[in-house]
Amino acid sequence: MSLPISDSLSESPNGQRFLAIFGGLVVFTVGIILFGYYVRGDDRPTPQELANAALAKTTPTDQATAAVRLGTYGEPAAKVELRRVLRETALPDVRAACIEGLGKLWDYESMDLLLDAVEFGSPKVRGRAAVVITRMTGCDRRYRAEAPAAERQRLVRFMREDWEEIRNSPYFDDLKQRLREGHEPN
């Protein structure tokens, strides 16, 4: 036996009340779940855990993956850990991921580490550091990671001079803001 259309759940007063209560319960339950995630945080590892994974004696791929994840973390603690990993690891992929992460976070406190990396790192590390330094200083010295050592040393000297001039400028904060704004996606 079929029910007439007028007796459907959404058209009867009791049916409407049921749907309103049911809908409210669904919204309430979803809200509680989302609030729980907000209060407890998501289950992603902490910056310290990611840094330790990047430095662990596992596979180089696992270490580089941890460094990449750390570089996308977006918290001040991530900067500290990225600097630590950059100082302590010798793996080029991990170092390059740390450099990229520091660049994405616009970490000017790491500039001396970046300048050391552009001077003494592997070609991959030197190239990544040069890109980040150029972005963060606004000074493009046309550095090539594969250039002869004498040319690279000359350009690194200029990069260090650029950084000293920028760091000591009374317009340093304004420059940092403008450079960030210039690299933000529209």
Report strand %.
Answer: under 5%
SSE order: HHHHHHHHH
CATH fold-level assignment of the largest domain: Leucine-rich Repeat Variant
Helix content: over 70%
Task: Please give the CATH class of the largest domain.
Answer: Mainly Alpha
Query: Span between N and C termini?
Result: 60 Å
- Number of helices, counting only DSSP H or I runs of 4 residues or more: 9
Indicate the low-confidence ranges by residue numbers: 33-40
Radius of gyration: 26 Å
Mean pLDDT: 83
Task: Kindly name the structural category.
Answer: mainly alpha
Shape descriptor: extended
Q: Describe the largest sheet.
A: none
Q: Architecture of the largest domain in CATH? A: Alpha Horseshoe
How many strand segments? Answer: 0
How many domains? The number is 2
